[in-house]
Amino acid sequence: MEILMIFAVGIIFSVGTYLLLTKSMLRVILGVMLIAHGAHLMFLTLAGLKTGSPPLLGEEASSYADPLPQALILTAIVIGFGMTAFMLVLAYRTYKLHGTDNLDELRGTDDE
Amino acid sequence: MSTLHFVALAPFIAAIFIPAFYFLFRRVHTGWFVLPIPLVLFIYLFTYLPLGGEPMEAVQHSVPWVPSLDIFFTVYLDGLSLLFALLITGIGALVVLYSIYYIANKDGEPLHNFYVYLLMFMGAMLGVVLSDNLIVIYVFWELTSFASSLLIAYWFHKEKSRYGAQKSMLITVSGGFAMLAGFTLLYGMTGTFSLQEIISQAGAISAEPAFLAAMILVLAGAFTKSAQFPFHIWLPDAMEAPTPVSAYLHSATMVKAGIYLVARFTPVFGGEPQWFWIITSFGLFTLLWGSVSAVRQKDLKGILAFSTVSQLGLIMSLLGAGSAAVHFDVVEGESMATVAVMAAMLHLINHATFKGSLFMVVGIVDHETGTRDIRRLGGLMTIMPITFSISLIGIAAMAGLPPFNGFLSKEMFFEGMLHAAQFDVFNAQTFGWLFPIIAWTASVFTFLYCMIMLFRTFTGEHDPSKLEKEAHEAPIGMLISPIILAGLVILFGLFPNMLAYTIIEPSMQAVLPDLLGAGEQFYVNIYHWHGFNTALFMTLGVVFFGALLFVNMRRFEASAFYLGERDPLNWFYDSGMTGLISGAQSVDAVQMTGKLRHYFMFMMVFFSVTMSYILLSTNALVIDWANAGELSPYLVLVVAAMLVATVAIPFVSSRISAVVLIGVVGFIIALLFVVLRAPDLALTQLLVETVMVVLLLLVFYHLPEIRKENFKPAFKIGNFVVSIAVGAVVTITGLAVHAFRYDNAINPISDYFVENAYELAGGKNMVNVILVDFRGLDTLLEVLVLGIVAIAAVVLVKFKAKDGEDV
Amino acid sequence: MMKSRPIQFHVVTRITGFIILTFSIFLFFAGHNNPGGGFIGGLMTASALVLLYLSFDVQSIKKAIPFDYTQMIAVGLAISIITGIVGMFFGFPYLTQFFDYFQLPILGETELTTALPFDLGIYLVVVGFTMLTILTIAEDEA
User: Do A79 and B738 touch (CB under 8 A)?
Assistant: First the structure.
């Protein structure tokens, strides 16, 4: 299972990177989102899948899934959410102001 | 915290309040509020002087700062520190008094800036000389460079001020940085940052391979700060600072920090031939170079600047020669090498007094006539009699004439150099005979520029048409400080022994601690008349040849040597700066293309290359099939669906389908979280995905359709290769980590959370307990980020820029 | 956005919106022992509010729920930060959390923790952030 997941993560990263390298702002944002997804999955996978019950002590199981990566991923999801939201607003604003979402056309002036 | 800690910190604390005083009492010159600080500190430090002649006991107090890194704010006060601390506060008080009259309290003159910088410098300098911990010394050391640079650029509207400030900053700070590296090497050898502990290990570390490197690095710091050849080029340009600053920082105190450092480290490095040769030869060469260059200057402050360079070289060379004393025992050393250290300490004081007064006098001349150019000045003797008298005293002391204090130290300097030439250690016989010759030649030039300074300014024809103002004597307030200093020049000249046991003996004791047994002390006796010895004849020769050169100056006044003013070494600095900028620009041109894609590309390629290198070099290409959980067909199906959605995203060209696809990926991941025992994650992911879809729809509603990418095929292939490489590296890394985890039976730290979640935090949901309890600060900062993002979003959208402007 | 909305949509969102809101508050309190907590509760509240905004127009919602989301973020942050500081007065490191069990009327034995106000702060920030970001863009359409 872990091996399959790792390969899946690899594919997600590939697609995410490809989107990052394109010119369209929207695709770049989608790429960032995908890479974030990939990273979360990778984290969870490397902590070991399918060992024990959910990390709730109320379950009174003999072993639990590792709670620490889950806490980290939870933080990462929320931060990623904030990041993506910010990028979306930035894209929105940029488009409104400059009328293009092509990153090549958005280059600064040469003397910067 | 002891009182001594506050001595170093008091100026900083005062600096905080000075702007308030400036704005509250606009009519009173801010300097009056600053003046008590150095004065009180001086009086306090004065009480530490061993006035009874008993050996001085070092005072030490420690306050932990970063104990885990062996950084303690330890104040250590011995003779050497005390000597410097008294100079800093004493000259500081006089300079502040002088500046009150020099810088007028008119509108637009940012006096509060001036005094804040000055106090910052004072505190930093006190910190340097009072600290025992190398890191603390370094911090204060760089602060002095910083304050000095700010003060040079005080009149920052002048281009030359900015140039001088940048130059001094670059040279002294990079020297300081080298010094930090030297300190770190010393820490590596001794395991401590405490100077006194390092000194106690002095003999043991000299065999270490890094010993010489540490020595040279520390010396780089000292030489840049003390303007030793070839780093001296910043000092003449630093003369753009207001004259009180030049008098204080660039002659009396800051430039002596390098001297202090060398003196401090003499017990550590002193026994080594390299130390002896490097310091003595650099010092002597600086002395010669500075005195010859000073002759060429037309600006009074320029003369003083190069004179300072040369005098610093003199003190430096004395310390170098004196370091040989570590090799002799007391009886023999007293007559041979210790005289050099004694001369260094004496000249340190003398130089501060006569050079301080001369700088102030030049400031007065500048202030009252509007120029410092010796070609335009002349005949001021009758117009400014008091100024002239002070100058006469200061210049005579600088030239080394009796009965002023400069004569004493110059005699001792000759004597020290003559001794150094005869040392039977360090192969001093080889080139040692050069020492007295260079010293004597430099002194001739010193005498020459002294005469130029005095006669060109005060004698000859007075031509008011060349001056910007009508010359007249300065107000009395401005004259007080130079008069006090000139008085000290005479006083120390006539009664040198009042310095001998109070400060020179204790400071020698600090420089050469190993020469003394317990309870012993140096006995210093300074007197004018040594009999008809070599040193006296050397002085007579200096006077004779100096006067001869001055009389015959016309002969070389037209020569290229005399007409060129700028130090030829500046070429290296200036072309270095131009090269640095053009070099940075050419790197920028390649790297900073302004295309986001290129930046991503750099990062991705760098990441892939370094990661693959590490994986290959550690032989980590393994797949651990044994510990992989079994595949359930259901999960395989879910993952496959997710991958299909993922791979489809680059191919769709409608916004809505893209949103739907990314939503599908997100929701499937939420599903995976449910199956993979992570209910909290599943809930969060689900909700984030929901909100995100709304947000995406809102924004995409405004953005244009995703166009077909019209890349050239080559570029498309490039992108493709990079993305595949990144994916592959990530996969391989994941596999390697997975295998590593089971191979090494790693004990996860999360066991701690599993065991303690209920006991320590009273919660059963471990994930949440970690978030709010064990790692609460992370979570707090995370929501802080969210808050910032929200504010940024509001600003971005609601802030309406003017035409053509962007956020 | 669209001017005419079917009345059924209004009715359904009104009901589901408040069910979701109630559930989100339950999730928030459940957080210490069961899945839930500040983040999840906050996000769910936000999605309920988004649902309401989607079905009604911005003006009427503003009248019904008169929250200033900017202030909500500030208040949330303040609550979280202050919770952490309280422990420092008793000599504990910043953000040390405490808990104990109390007998309360009606509720019986209840666990009270300082993590709860901390979580409340997080909850408020998350709601404020989500709503503020979405509303800023939505309102800018004009």
Answer: no
Touching subunits of A (3+ CB pairs, under 8 Å) are B, C
Of the ranges B64-68, B165-169, B338-342, which is most confident?
B165-169
- B457: which 2 tokens? 């300014």
Residue B266 included in any domain: no
Burial class (CB in 10 A: 0-12, 13-18, 19+), B307: buried
B330 or C44, which is more confident: C44
Please say which residue of B565, B592, B619 terminates a domain: B592
Residues B220-268 pLDDT 10s: 999 999 888 888 888 888 888 888 888 888 888 888 999 999 988 888 8
The tokens describing B631, both together, are 């595949």
Indicate whether C95 pLDDT > 50. yes
Q: Measured in whole angstroms, how far is the alpha carbon of residue B755 from the centre of its chain?
A: 51
Segment holding B64, helix H or strand E: strand B59-66
Stretch 668-687 of chain B: residues touching chain C, C-beta under 8 Å = 679-680, 683-684, 687
User: Which residues have CB under 8 Å from B429's CB, separation 6+?
Assistant: B422, B423
Question: Is the residue at A35 inside a domain?
Answer: yes
In this structure, the answer to whether residues B557 and B524 fall within a common structural domain is yes
Label residue B770 exposed, middle or buried (CB < 10 Å: 0-12, 13-18, 19+).
buried
Q: How many domains in chain C? A: 1
- Cβ count within 10 A of residue C37: 30
> CA-to-CA distance for A64 and B764, rounded, in angstroms?
12
Report the C-alpha gap between A26 and A91 in whole angstroms. 8
Rounded to an integer, the average pLDDT of B128-141 is 91
Q: What is the pTM of this model?
A: 0.72
The number of folded domains in chain B is: 2
Instruction: List C-alpha distances in Å: B707 to A16, A24, A93, B648.
Output: 18, 8, 19, 16
Longest dimension (CA), chain A: 65
Cross-chain CB nearest to B691 (options C50, C111, C136): C50
| Inter-helix orientation angle A25-46/A2-20, to 10° | 160
Q: By the 8 A CB rule, do A76 and B564 touch? A: no
Beta partners for residue B77, in sequence order: B59
Q: In whole angstroms, what is the distance from residue A29 CA to residue B703 CA?
A: 13
Q: Can you tell me the distance from the alpha carbon of B167 to that of B23, in angstroms, rounded to the nearest whole number?
A: 32
Q: Are residues B605 and B504 part of one domain?
A: no
3-state helix, strand, coil in chain B (%, to 5): 75, 5, 25
Q: Taking a contact as any Cβ pair under 8 Å apart, which residues of chain B between 691 and 710 contact chain C?
A: 691, 694-695, 698-699, 702
Instruction: Tell whether B602 and B460 lie within a shared domain.
Output: no
Residue A96 belongs to domain with CATH number: 1.10.287
What tens digit of pLDDT does each residue of B686-719 get? 989 888 888 888 887 777 776 666 667 777 888 8
Q: Which residues contact A31 (CB under 8 A, 6 or more apart)?
A: A15, A16, A17, A18, A19, A20, A21, A22
Angstrom distance (rounded) from CA B600 to CA B612: 18
What's the gap between Cα B587 and its chain centre?
Answer: 27
Q: Are residues B754 and B710 in the same domain?
A: yes
Output the six-digit token pair for B69: 């890194």
Determine whether the interchain pair A56/C39 forms a contact, defined as Cβ–Cβ distance below 8 Å. Answer: no
Q: Is B766 helix (H, G, I), strand (E, B) or coil?
A: helix
Rounded CA-CA distance C38/B769 in Å is: 11
Q: Phi then psi for B64, rounded to 5 degrees?
A: -65, 140
Q: Answer whether residue B163 is part of any domain.
A: no
* Token representation of residue A39: 């990273």
- Is the minimum CB–CB distance between A56 and chain C shorter than 8 Å? yes
Residue numbers of the domain that contains B713: 594-766
Task: Report yes or no on C16 lying in a domain.
Answer: yes
As given in the structure block, the two tokens for residue A6 are 């790792």
